[in-house]
Design brief:
Blueprint lengths: L3 E7 L18 E6 L2 E10 L5 E8 L6 E11 L17 E9 L5 E3 L4 E9 L7 E11 L2 E16 L7 E3 L3 H8 L6 H16 L4 E4 L21 E5 L2 E5 L1 H13 L3 E4 L14 E5 L2 E6 L8 H21 L5 E3 L10 H11 L7 E6 L2 H5 L5 E5 L4 H5 L6 E3 L17 H13 L5 E3 L34 E3 L5 E3 L1 H23 L1 H6 L18 H17 L3
Parallel strand pairs: 2-10, 11-22, 12-15, 13-16, 15-18, 18-19, 19-20, 20-21, 21-22
Antiparallel strand pairs: 1-3, 3-8, 4-7, 4-9, 5-6, 5-8, 9-10, 13-14, 16-17, 23-24
Length: 549
């Protein structure tokens, strides 16, 4: 139709208003395993003289498995750090695609002269019969069809297996209570929290940061975050007494949502383990803050408290049947300058946690070499020494600092840079992945709350998109981002590669990862193109198809 143009583009493409997107990596048919979601986009441009409205309509045999959302622009005032590489889509602040929103009865805007896009999910249910399902999207304006997009959706006769490793995106329930203005531990708080956990699990986050005490993370020295402590603490007759009713409800909720692993909040403050988390309890007949920034990490009072607490907590976790799936933290991101204080903290809990799984995010190999961290969670830009002298268990993570060469998920990074993560996790057989921001709706150091629809960079501290993957939608229902879906695709790639390995061996799976001459596949050098990942996954699916027909 005159004035309207459209094209199919990959889910890994980010459609900017002023650029016609390429069709790199687009396939005529999308293929999925049962239980998997695959996605594509319809980019469109309206060249009329005024804004109009368009109503997308689903048709075809596979329409019941399809979902359409609009890709919305969000503000990126701080798109990237000055220290970065060339593999970014822009270096300028602006409005860029990220937020995925349901389409209301009013339809979607046709903005004159701008490229925008629709996001189409095709979800293969666990009960879906194998076969090819045609799906069409009719784009209607004023009752007239301006164009029809046809896509074939093939479902293979195999189930996408569960994620084979723990994957945690740090969950900040205090941010939810503050944004939605609900009281912590009210029924509304529990309802909203469950909505956000369920959304995380759907996109293959199978591990949850569990605030037995308010996590001492991203907090200014001397400052405090809203308490979300799950443990009741009482000091009476010279003894510490603990109540775990809230923790039991938390675990029950998480099980209901599908959480597999539990990550106990850190036992000492961030960046060096010098102080204690804020811990509230009843002492001398009054409810008060018992520990906090004013308490030295190695104080006799905290040492005694922590021993009593860990003994009681482990007993509770065992009764709940989750101790073997629980991971403990000492302190987040210790550097070489604080090695001594971190070592003291480790020694303080060594006896109580000797039979438990302990993980911490770090970058210095010396922490592992000295036996301070049994399961290091290494930043991807410092992981090479860990790969060369590999620990028995090795995790990976990235955050704001991993801005050069390695994968990440900032809004202005190409989609393939986010999705490549799953392939690399499989290639190097990492044992887990961690990120600090599923829903961090604070400024840096949690000095104030922010509106994530207006601020995507923690008040100019981190590249836009780093602090969160989901937006706080109406009625306590999270709205996903394009980056959330790319993370889901990355983890699906990992699951599919693992399935192929089980069917045909590692050699067959690794052959699917082969790159072109002159390319490499490691954490700093990998194919910088959509077509590599689209082609890799097509190879994996072809091999699985051969073995299931």
């Amino acid at each position: 139709m005159e004035g309207f143009e459209w094209k199919i583009v990959s889910s890994m493409k980010k459609v900017f208003p002023v650029r016609e997107p390429s069709g790199e990596g687009v396939r005529e048919k999308l293929t999925a395993l049962r239980g998997e979601t695959v996605s594509f986009q319809i980019a469109y441009r309206w060249s009329g003289s005024r804004r109009e409205k368009m109503h997308p309509e689903l048709c075809g045999k596979g329409k019941e498995m399809a979902r359409i959302r609009k890709v919305c622009l969000v503000p990126c005032e701080y798109p990237l750090h000055p220290e970065s590489d060339e593999d970014y889509l822009t270096r300028e602040p602006g409005l860029y695609p990220d937020l995925l929103q349901e389409i209301s009865g009013e339809g979607v805007n046709l903005i004159p002269g701008q490229w925008r896009s629709l996001w189409v999910d095709l979800e293969a249910q666990d009960s879906s019969a194998p076969g090819v399902y045609p799906v069409s999207v009719r784009m209607v304006r004023n009752g007239e069809c301006m164009g029809t997009v046809d896509m074939s959706f093939e479902i293979l006769n195999a189930d996408l297996p569960p994620l084979p490793i723990p994957h945690t995106e740090w969950f900040h329930s205090d941010c939810l209570a503050e944004y939605y203005q609900v009281e912590v531990f009210s029924e509304e708080y529990w309802r909203i929290t469950e909505n956000f956990i369920r959304a995380a699990v759907k996109r293959k986050c199978n591990m949850i940061l569990t605030p037995v005490f308010t996590p001492p993370l991203d907090t200014a020295v001397g400052g405090y975050r809203l308490p979300v402590q799950l443990t009741d603490v009482v000091f009476e007759n010279g003894h510490w007494v603990f109540g775990f009713e809230k923790l039991r409800r938390w675990v029950e909720m998480c099980r209901r949502c599908g959480i597999v692993y539990y990550e106990i909040s850190h036992l000492f403050t961030q960046w060096g383990a010098k102080c204690t988390p804020q811990i509230f309890g009843t002492k001398d007949g009054q409810y008060q803050r018992i520990f906090g920034w004013e308490t030295d990490a190695g104080s006799p009072e905290y040492t005694e408290f922590l021993h009593s607490f860990l003994c009681a907590l482990k007993k509770e976790l065992k009764q709940l049947g989750i101790l073997e799936h629980t991971f403990f933290h000492v302190s987040d991101e210790p550097g070489e300058a604080v090695l001594e204080s971190y070592q003291k903290a480790v020694e303080l809990v060594a006896e109580d946690l000797g039979d438990c799984q302990v993980i911490d995010a770090l970058s210095e190999y010396a922490f592992y070499e000295k036996g301070l961290v049994r399961q290091p969670v290494c930043s991807l830009d410092h992981i090479q020494p860990f790969l060369e002298k590999r620990p028995e268990k090795l995790w990976g993570y990235y955050c704001t600092s991993q801005a050069v060469n390695v994968p990440n998920r900032f809004i202005v990074q190409p989609g393939y840079r986010t999705r490549i993560l799953g392939t690399l996790l499989y290639r190097y057989q990492l044992d887990g992945f961690l990120h600090w921001g599923y829903n961090f709706y604070h400024s840096q150091f949690s000095t104030r709350s922010i509106d994530p629809y207006l601020c995507t960079d923690a008040d100019g501290a981190f590249p836009s998109g780093d602090p969160f993957l989901v937006y706080p939608g109406r009625d306590g229902i999270p709205e996903e981002s394009q980056r959330m879906m790319l993370m889901d695709e990355a983890m699906s790639d990992l699951c599919a590669l693992k399935l192929l390995e089980q069917m045909a061996g590692k050699e067959t799976a690794y052959r699917c990862l082969e790159v072109q001459e002159g390319e490499e596949l490691n954490f700093e050098k990998y194919p910088r193109r959509i077509s590599y990942l689209a082609g890799m996954r097509e190879k994996v699916n072809d091999e699985i198809r051969k073995r299931t027909e």
